[in-house]
Predict the 3D structure of the following.
Amino acid sequence: MEKRLSRQAASDAVDGHGWRLVLGALHSSVGVSSLAESVEVASRAVAACGGHADGHLRADVRADRVVLTVQTLAIGAVTGRDAELARAITAAGLKTEPGAGQRSVQQLEIAVDALDIASVRPFWQAVLGYADEPGADADGPLVDPLGQGPALWFQQMDEPRPQRNRLHFDISVPHDEAPHRIEAALAAGGRVLSDVRAPSFWVLADPEGNEACVTTWQGRDV
């Protein structure tokens, strides 16, 4: 049950249960009408996970929704146990769905282009108060230990690019949300710079050329 699942297997395991695989975790939300109801929903999710709750479940409790995340926290990945827990939460009678409110679940990353990742990474870790992502290598992403800020990852540069921005956002969305998000961005004046790696990611730009990537889990399994 603690075996790491491929992205395809993780997505398939919760298909039809109102969960989506986004950035190495299973995400869902439950709409509520009050903060008191939100706390009750979170408690029911914890009860459904039983003794595994502390190591696998995170709940963002708000007055209009509860955002639920299931992941094996020790390794920062989805395992068979996580898929089982996500299904158990839904089976507990909670109306789990990707979007409860204005938009679907998503995760934000900030990408830093660097010639020497090992030299710049410690600065960002220190200035942000971030920690190493569990299970990642020495040059891997940095994450907020409190889960409040976006992850930061480092993209290897081959040569200096002084005329191009070297920070960009990665917006990780459910695989079935990506077309709608891209369509909205284009309607708002954006353009597609590259779709060569789609559906893994699309590179978009605003009217002045500032870049952002819409990413999904698809196309990433070896």
User: Anything to note?
Assistant: The radius of gyration is 18 Å. The longest strand covers residues 107-114. The domain at 7-91 is CATH 3.30.1360.20 (Gyrase A; domain 2). Residues 35-49 form the longest helix (15 residues).
